[in-house]
Amino acid sequence: MPSPSIIQLTMPAADIALLTFNDPHKGANVLSSAVLAELEAHLNRLEKEPGLAGLVIRSGKPGSFIVGADLREFVVSFNAPREQIVAMCHRARQLFQRLCTLPFVTVAAIDGLCLGGGAELALWCDHRLFADDPKAQLGFPEIKLGLYPGWGGTVRSSRIAGLANAVEIVTGGESIDARTAVLMGLATDLVPRDRLEHAAIELIRSQQQSGQYLDNRQRWSQPLAITDTELTFLAATAGAMIQQQTKGHYPAPPVALEMMLEAAGLDAEAACEKEAEGMADLFGTPVNQALINVFFLGDRNKRSTGVAKPDVQPRPIKSISVIGAGIMGQGIAAANLKRNIPVSITDAAPNALHAGIEKILEEAAYDKKTRRPDPQRAVHYASLLEGTTSDEELAAADLVIEAVVEIPDVKRRILARLEPKLRSTAVLGSNTSTIPITKLAEGLAHPDRFCGIHFFNPVRKMPLVEVIRGKQTSDETIATVVAYAKSIGKSPVVVNDGPGFLVNRLLFPYLAEAVELLLDGAEPAAVERAARQFGMPMGPLLLYDVVGLDTAYYAGRVMYEAFPDRVAASPVVGVLIKAGRLGQKSGAGFFSYARDKEHGEPDPELARLIDPIVRRPQKFTQEQLTARLFLPMLLEATRALEEGIVQDPRDVDLGLIYGLGFPPFKGGLLFWADTMGLDRILKMLEPLADLGPRMQPTPLLLEMAHSGRRFYRSGP
């Protein structure tokens, strides 16, 4: 049976053709080779149709036009020869280019998201109309995949919106809303959604009368009118911004900038040739493959229900309660308010509750454009937020999240006090970062309705939520919490119970090794530099200071008690705590925050405190420091897989990218190991064997290396 067509051709008027993209098998339209072939067949037919005044291209999916190319086809082509990649770009671009050479007016009628290849298709049309919707966007996210628009997008956007605007959109990878698109000239107008098709037909008729579209076609095919001075200034300013944002780890933005500057003086055809050549330089590179892997990790996460059984239905979460108004409680509450979910919150200290409510409203009402809380938003969110000391009011919510100090007995007392008051459909959760959920569930009457819901700090920035399954947690509870986490814009990863769960279990070997390196004589600045050059957003010692050394110490005790053979009981953190150096909150930790309260500065006092306990001063190369920091994390990940903490390597990689900021350009910890090669990983471990069990290959790693297996069996 032939596959149903994705593009439907209709004739809303005798002289108007309408092509509607609507893939019945996908939630959003994407441009696969089959779809492009279908489009080509339609254009071949319409080109011969006599008397046509215009063509309207639209989507049959409300809120989404076309969201890009089919990336699975990209993966298949990773190892293709360069000339094949150039030819692939030319084929798609030449097809789209026909939209501005047909003997009639072409209009893209866009409702919602218009991204990547979809944006390129739209830009090759004579005009673009957007449905007036605040969620409507136009953008080129290819840069986040290690590429840039390769089907004429850089050329067309430069000529329609101006080179500076195009450079910002292409190299930044961020979408613009429909109103901004109109201001830049990338869209002609905004119209009510129910008039979108009618407005497109009206635009065709007015363009046929005025002939303006023919003037645009001529103008946009020419080189850009820009001086050498303007080009030099744009190269300097945009180049500096790109370096600041990418730290040199992402090659696509500077390559795109250089190509667009060189193409400015060429006609559109020659510029498109240059665009395709540059695209071939980026396609299939390690960074491109890694970033596409990250895309697939996120896509898989969006589709996951968190449970294996397809018939498990999540219960709706329409209200929540938060126990604890500290930093984590504030962040959790604000995340819910921003999704208009009513929140009740409490704290044992009245002053902390009052201060917490103020912070919650500040964060929830924060306006990125004005960089301050919006008063109207604050009033709205205040109506959804209730500070209370009543257990009955707290227990009335669909979900109750405990977010108090990381002390098991304190948490157990709170959970035991609230559980009897909950409705039979309510879920009870703990935001613990390290304490096993099964231990916290001891004494609960309904452990099946209890699980871990571990948010990451700061909640507003970190997309990950670990959903931890205790020994008796039900599938329905897990499915409910997974669906809830997605409803507030988070990416939940389900993990089985164990000390530190997944992310913190893998974090602590990294942090502990940084301190061990200090004891071996490494300079703090060198340790930090090695981590940042690897791609981490901050070094491990600064991370200690941000978390708080006292907090890290108590969490570290949980890990030491669970894994004493490989978690070093280092004296360094204890020495600093005794000296009152708790990190940023006390003004000093591994660094001093007297002048730079965010990043800190080297402090000579640190050497005075730890020099007496340094074991054997050594000099380390950057490669040695990198191996010491990241191999223990990798080994712990293989242990987590062996023990079934997670079932799939992709959960490890997504968890570390979204929860720790592991560098996306490496594709994830286990993807990085595959890229390095497991045999090479074993060789890197050989000189570290004397450091003990924490540096010894695990049975899983040895077996995979010897059998030639990879964590990702078929690439991204």
Write a concise synopsis of the structure shown.
It contains 31 helices and 20 strands.
Average of the residue pLDDT scores? 94
Find the count of extended strands (DSSP E, 2+ residues): 20
Strand content: 5-15%
Q: Specify the helix fraction band.
A: 40-55%
Number of distinct helices: 31
Principal-axis shape equals globular
The main sheet orders its strands as 15-12-11-16-17-18-19-20
Quaternary organisation: single chain
What does it look like?
The chain contains 31 helices and 20 strands. The longest helix has 22 residues, at 622-643. The two termini are 31 Å apart.
Features:
single chain, 716 residues, alpha/beta, six-stranded mixed sheet, 31 helices, 49% helix, 12% strand
Q: What topology emerges from the helices and strands here?
A:
Blueprint: E1 7-13, E2 16-21, H1 33-47, E3 54-59, E4 64-66, H2 71-76, H3 82-97, E5 105-110, E6 113-115, H4 117-124, E7 127-131, E8 137-139, H5 153-161, H6 163-172, E9 176-177, H7 178-184, E10 189-191, H8 196-210, H9 212-219, H10 228-246, H11 252-263, H12 268-282, H13 286-303, E11 320-323, H14 327-337, E12 343-346, H15 350-364, E13 366-367, E14 372-373, H16 375-382, E15 385-387, H17 391-395, E16 399-402, H18 408-418, E17 427-430, H19 437-440, E18 450-455, E19 464-469, H20 475-487, E20 491-496, H21 503-519, H22 524-534, H23 540-547, H24 549-562, H25 571-578, H26 604-610, H27 622-643, H28 649-660, H29 669-676, H30 678-685, H31 699-707
Parallel strand pairs: 2-3, 3-5, 4-6, 5-7, 6-8, 7-10, 11-12, 11-16, 12-15, 16-17, 17-18, 19-20
Antiparallel strand pairs: 1-2, 8-9, 13-14, 18-19
Helix pairs in contact: 3-12, 4-5, 5-6, 6-11, 10-11, 11-12, 13-28, 14-15, 21-23, 21-27, 22-27, 29-30
